[in-house]
Amino acid sequence: MTETPFGSILDVPGIGVGHHQRIGTGWQTGTTVLIAQNGATPGVDVRGGGPGTRETDALRPENLIRTIHAITLTGGSAYGLAAADGVVELLEAAGLGFPIGDGVVPVVPAAVIFDLARGGIFANRPDASFGARAARGALSGRRTPSWGSVGAGTGACAGGLQGGHPLPEEVERHLAEMTADEVVDELTKAGMLERIGGIGYITKLLDDVPTASNVGHYASIVRGFSIRRALDGVAQRIRSDALDLKQEVAMVLDQAEQGVYEIGLEQSGTRVQRLAPLLGSALDDFEAARTSGSTGLALGYLDLDRLLTGVTPGNLVLLAARPSVGKSALALSIAHRVAESQGPVAFFSLEMSKHELVQRQREQYGDEYDDHLLVGHKHACYDISCALYERRETQARRAEYGQVAGLEDDADHKAGDCSRSTRRAA
After folding, report:
1. Phi and psi at residue 69, to the nearest 5°
2. Quick check: helix, strand or coil at residue 376?
3. Do residues 57 and 144 touch, judged by C-beta distance below 8 A?
4. pLDDT of 398 above 60
5. Pairwise CA distance, residues 279 & 281, whole Å
6. Domain count across the chain
7. Cβ distance 305 to 288 under 8 Å?
8. 3-state secondary structure of 265
9. Angle at 182 between CA 176 and CA 188, to 5 degrees
10. Does residue 135 sit in the same domain as residue 59?
11. Which has the least CB within 10 A, 186, 338, 340, 415?
């Protein structure tokens, strides 16, 4: 294997590369053509959200084409595909292509980049003449590669920045250690400062190029776009389900809300944490349990609190018993005690209406709430009824509120209604 002199595709025997570009007076675009006069076996992998290609399907393994003689890369977006016409005409004249009878059909796969109006005028973009001139360059036998922003790369940008300007050797070798002023001085000495855009371009680089110090901010940007993509996916599923008349409306509503809720749940998930910082809070909890007998929310029943040591966020506590032994009465009593000491409590029931819930409260605690009883409202979408009661201990003390929500005793109500209401309350 011989050593390659340039480290470019021109080191491959039989491959020619030609460029044609226009810069200035409203232009900044170009075309690059690769020609294999002896033919080459092609392959293709098209990526990106908005690809612009021509004849790439002909390169699939199951299709007839086994050999091609040229590839066109060009600016001009979809308009730039016209550059391949000039390449096809030149190859036909040279007799290069797929043989058909007495002639040939040149297969010239092409791909474009978006550089419209990069030079200032939208209508200035490559046409067939660009492809023909670039193809002539590829057939000329020139073996010295071109460097920088040439051909299809003339108007190429990445992240709003344009490269393709080879740096002086001294600058390239010590760039990591040089300050911006030193880079400007070296480029000025080499006569390249204005060619790459002047001091303004250097300043723009300093402002636009990502740095490790801002990695947290960049990560939040990526995370934001991830959330947006997830929301877009859910929105498309919601639209599809909404148009599917075979699905029940209640099921469509539940799936829609569940999809959005899951996105929020994933974004607020617990992160990996080091053990050492958690030991302090664990010791505080231990000390609280030792002094008060509880590490979480007290339910108001000493024996029960002693067994559970309080209820902490994330707990799921199931209260199970045979029918008609007082489960609902105990749950309402716990809700009442927690509301008195901690604040609002949501109570959902599939067996009692809002009026029955309120009546139970009155029967259990007498008439002390009569002056502060506000009987609730209905949510039109989910038919969930609520009752809000208020208790004031003394005139000098601020009121403490407890909230009790119940479902009407109706055959249309389902457990999904409770699930949706719980998600909204959370």
Report:
1. -120, -5
2. strand
3. no
4. no
5. 6
6. 5
7. no
8. helix
9. 120
10. yes
11. 415
Which residue shows structure tokens 């990591």?
176
Q: CA–CA separation, 215 vs 220, rounded Å?
A: 9
Same domain, 78 and 37: yes
Which range scores top for mean pLDDT: 92-101, 274-283, 371-380?
92-101
The values of phi and psi at residue 103, to 5°, are -125, -170
Token pair listed for 65: 């084409």
312: Cβ contacts below 8 Å, ≥ 6 apart = 295, 296, 297
Q: What is the dihedral of CA 205, 210, 211, 215, to 10 degrees?
A: 160
Is residue 323 located within the same domain as residue 356? yes
Q: At what angle do helices 180-189 and 198-208 cross, to 10 degrees?
A: 150
Closest listed residue to residue 261, CA positions, set 388, 100, 420: 420
- Distance between CA atoms of residues 225 and 204, nearest Å: 24
- Asked if residue 3 belongs to a domain, the reply is no
Q: Can you tell me whether residue 70 is helix, strand or coil?
A: strand
Domain boundary among 164, 188, 222: 164
pTM, entire model: 0.43
pLDDT for res 176: 62
Q: Phi first, then psi: what are they for 387, rounded to 5°?
A: -135, 135
Q: What is the C-alpha separation between 7 and 1, in angstroms, rounded?
A: 14
Residues 6+ apart with CB under 8 A from 34: 9, 15, 16, 17, 70, 71, 73, 138
Could you count the other beta carbons within 10 Å of the beta carbon of residue 131?
31
Closest listed residue to residue 77, CA positions, set 49, 125, 126, 114? 114
- What length is written for the chain? 426
Q: Which domain holds residue 67?
A: 9-164
pLDDT mean across residues, the chain: 76
β-strands 103-105, 110-112: how paired? unpaired
DSSP strand pairing (384-391 vs 400-407): antiparallel
Distances (CA, A) of 2 to 8, 53, 143: 14, 35, 16
One DSSP character per residue, 50-105 reads S--EES-GGGSTTSS---EEEEEEESSGGGGGGHHHHHHHHHHHHT-SEEETTEEE
Structural contact between residues 68 and 59, judged by C-beta atoms closer than 8 angstroms: yes
